[in-house]
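Tutorial handout. Part one gives the primary structure; part two gives the three-dimensional structure as tokens.
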Amino acid sequence: MTIKVAMVGRPNVGKSTLFNRLVGKRLALVDDTPGVTRDRREAMASLGGMSFLAIDTAGLEEDGDTKLSARMRAQTDLAINEADFALFMIDARAGVTPLDKHFADLLRRGKTPVILICNKAEGRAAEAGIYESYSLGLGEPVSISAEHGEGLSELIEAFDKVIFDNNLVVEEEPGEVTSKAVYIDGEISDEEADTEGEYDTGLPLQMAIVGRPNVGKSTLVNYLLGEDRQITGPEAGLTRDAIGVTYFYEDREIRMFDTAGLRRKSKVMEKLEKLSVADTIRALNFAEVVVLMIDATMPFEKQDLSIASLVVQEGRSLVIALNKYDLMENRQEIMKDIQETLEHSLPQIKGIPIVPISALTGKGVNKLMPAVFEAYRLWNRRVSTAKLNKWLAATVAYHPHPSVKGRRIKMRYMTQVKTRPPTFAIFCNRTADVARSYERYLLNELRWDFELPGVPIRVLMRKGDNPYGKSLK
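Part two.
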């Protein structure tokens, strides 16, 4: 089993900065604002040849049980209980605060071994805080600078000691233990993203859940996982960064990403929200299927269409989950209105599947994953060149392109150049003169005849070589 290491401490002591350094990627959002991290984030990390699962947690705060900080505290407590040992971080420049003392007492009484870390220890300003940290009763502190990478050799020694004292088995050679890292919080590789032809069902399917704030994305993730993995509540914008978790559906592994809500660009003013939006866009870039959640109790807004259009532009397969559908009385009218709006506003991707669900009660959720897998299958669809050329000849004969300046446009050959999404190339003599309306005609007929509903399709016009070009030179 892989060793689990939880990073805990009060807000703004540098937990996410150290997490990013150990993981080797900027996965966790980092900002000067206290309390940026809310949900716990997991990823494979390495230090001194050791491979382990790092868990970034929300800052520890004392608060009532009814507030957001209490829900964040519950997630942190869960991470500590699951971890083999914890890294308790304090800000050496600020010294030991009453909050540090309070949570040090709690950690001392717990069963999880603890390594005390004095972060931001560069320079003389941190010396007093380092000496003061001995009073916490957690042993000798390790002085580091997560921002500048200082003191990591001393941290390696502390890791070795706690692993030896607690008889833990550590994985070595992190290059061979990357599968769990990729499946939990990593990015898809370029080679994997550009795979063409038949798709490998052994690879995990990457699914991102997007939508406006407070539509129920985290609630859906928790229901699918069967546990309170993500923080939920009536407050809008609880999720700040894209959190990836592993989920199994009928023995198929899925990388599921819960993302921050996307508001209209004009309303995004704060730097932290801009970082959250950028993290959501990053999740879209390497997702394969995107589930767009819409709140049935709220009108279908332009922002929902903007998100759907963004997914289509990225070339990802799209499934719409109509959440809180059980609260509506005029259900058929709502479904009809959404379908008509999509047909009118997104004509380039007709047939997007819409699945009515209730993420809170689970009603209809059993129909969501079959729709996701069907969208994924169509996204990987390949059509033979022979069928495409027969189709092209028949389609052009039925409705030929109008002549341009008295000259006929000849479409000679067609082939599928890639999948994910299905992309087709048509070779003709005058590509610049092909009307956009005729390209849409071909695309719609292609979608209809080869049964590719709800999937982005690319049709490229390519100019064929002049067979007399060499003789004319």
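Part three, for discussion. The radius of gyration is 27 Å. Confidence is low (pLDDT under 50) at residues 173-198.
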